[in-house]
Design brief:
This protein has nine helices and six strands. It is mostly helical. It is elongated, with a radius of gyration of 35 Å.
């Protein structure tokens, strides 16, 4: 039996909130990546790790907030906790690999292509692994062409985001890059969902296990709290928020040329001529 899929059970609420979470995770991750380029090597890894975890948490949170609006009308869905948590770990690890490549190799074409490909595959893998954690009396089927399109969207978006992280400076420009990344990640998600069809088994009914609200709501608390804490760290570091300070952008002023005053030779002191009788007490001068 073919299941009736509804991806917008709560209307535009879940897509909008999911998009905002993707933007938040992308903004924090991209600014941390940019900040790592101006940090010493011991601290660079910490900034990159914070950026990778922010992006991974953001896209994972976006995915499962959007999944709150996903339903199959003939079936109640449940989620496997282990696979759902594994999708979060996979997202953080693969995004981290891509970010570390760009963070240590710089904005070279090879580093951007490699890092963007790994990051994009991490986003897509997180999505489909999360979908594999759904439990129901049936099975999912995907359209291969649409799935391939969703993966291409993820890779292109990740490459563009990493390029923006290391090339774009300033708060407004970085904010624009995070919005583009949020749109791309959301587009990848709903493109992948458009490839989905559900085939229910005969006699399908309510699946035993936790409902989506019971599983997803508590699991979202941790990543959302982490994003809030990462935002606090970003706010307390002005280089993360504003990029390079203005005094670093200005060219250095030339050193003042020392002024040399003309030097004149010291005047020669001439001795006064000695006159007879002056300053002499000899009787011969009387």
């Amino acid at each position: 039996m073919h299941g009736t899929v509804d991806g917008f059970t709560y209307g535009l609420v879940t897509p909008v909130v999911a998009f905002l979470m993707a933007c938040l995770g992308g903004a924090l991750g991209l600014r941390c990546t940019a900040r790592s380029l101006r940090a010493d090597r011991p601290f660079r890894a910490l900034w990159l790790a914070l950026g990778a975890t922010s992006i991974g948490s953001g896209i994972w949170t976006m995915h499962f907030i959007a999944m709150m609006g996903f339903s199959v009308r003939q079936e109640v869905l449940s989620y496997d906790r282990a696979i759902t948590f594994a999708s979060l770990g996979l997202a953080v690890v693969m995004v981290g690999i891509g970010i570390f490549i760009v963070g240590y190799r710089g904005a070279t074409p090879m580093a951007l292509v490699t890092g963007g490909t790994v990051t994009g595959l991490g986003v897509a893998s997180m999505h489909y692994l999360g979908m594999a954690g759904i439990r129901l009396h049936g099975e999912f089927a995907y359209n291969t062409l649409t799935v391939s399109l969703s993966v291409v969207i993820a890779v292109v978006a990740a490459t563009a985001a990493l390029w923006a992280a290391v090339s774009v400076s300033g708060f407004l420009a970085s904010l624009g890059a995070s919005v583009v990344m949020g749109l791309a990640v959301s587009g990848m998600h709903y493109t992948g969902m458009a490839a989905l069809s559900v085939h229910l088994h005969d006699g399908a009914g309510t699946t035993a296990g936790d409902s989506s609200a019971t599983v997803l709501a508590p699991m979202l608390i941790g990543p959302v709290a982490f994003l809030v804490l990462a935002g606090v760290v970003v706010m307390f570091d002005p280089l993360v928020v504003m990029g390079r300070p203005e005094w670093e952008k200005r060219p250095p002023r030339p050193a003042p040329v020392p002024r040399h005053l003309p030097s004149f030779p010291e005047p020669t002191r001439w001795a006064a001529p000695h006159r007879p009788g002056e300053g002499s007490s000899s009787p011969h001068d009387w």
